[in-house]
Amino acid sequence: MNNIIELKGISRTYNHGGPDLTVLKNISLSIAPGELVAITGASGSGKSTLMNIMGCLDMPDSGDCYIGGQNVARLSPDELAEIRREHIGFIFQRYHLIPDLSASDNVAIPAIYANSRRDHRRQRAAELLARLGLEGREHHKPGELSGGQQQRVSIA
Known about the structure:
Blueprint: E1 5-14, E2 21-31, H1 47-54, E3 62-67, E4 70-71, H2 77-87, H3 103-113, H4 118-131, H5 147-155
Antiparallel strand pairs: 1-2, 1-3, 3-4
Helix pairs in contact: 3-4
């Protein structure tokens, strides 16, 4: 079975004018389709850095990161953006919804960047919201939704 994410010997060091701070050192990880993985650790242990590398938002200093079998270091910025848009989703502790947009419009934002037709975006947003139990809430703004409903909009 092909892994959806594979890290081989990933290391990441930061230098903000002081001594180097190594947050990841020789990390290897394979994630198969359908596998559930939890990244845990103390504050400052490198969890966010690891997630940013797996999400194609940051690059390691050494090692290889493969997403769907592709070495992300060899991809152009546009190709990385396409992978993020089509294959990677983050669920943030804060939902990062745009307060002036409806639930449906918040869900449709990634499809705008994918140049999807407006009617397709609306239909897909309605389908996703319905699958997450938010049918009838498509036109509500985030401030009109509960915290759990906002999180489901973010997931959609």
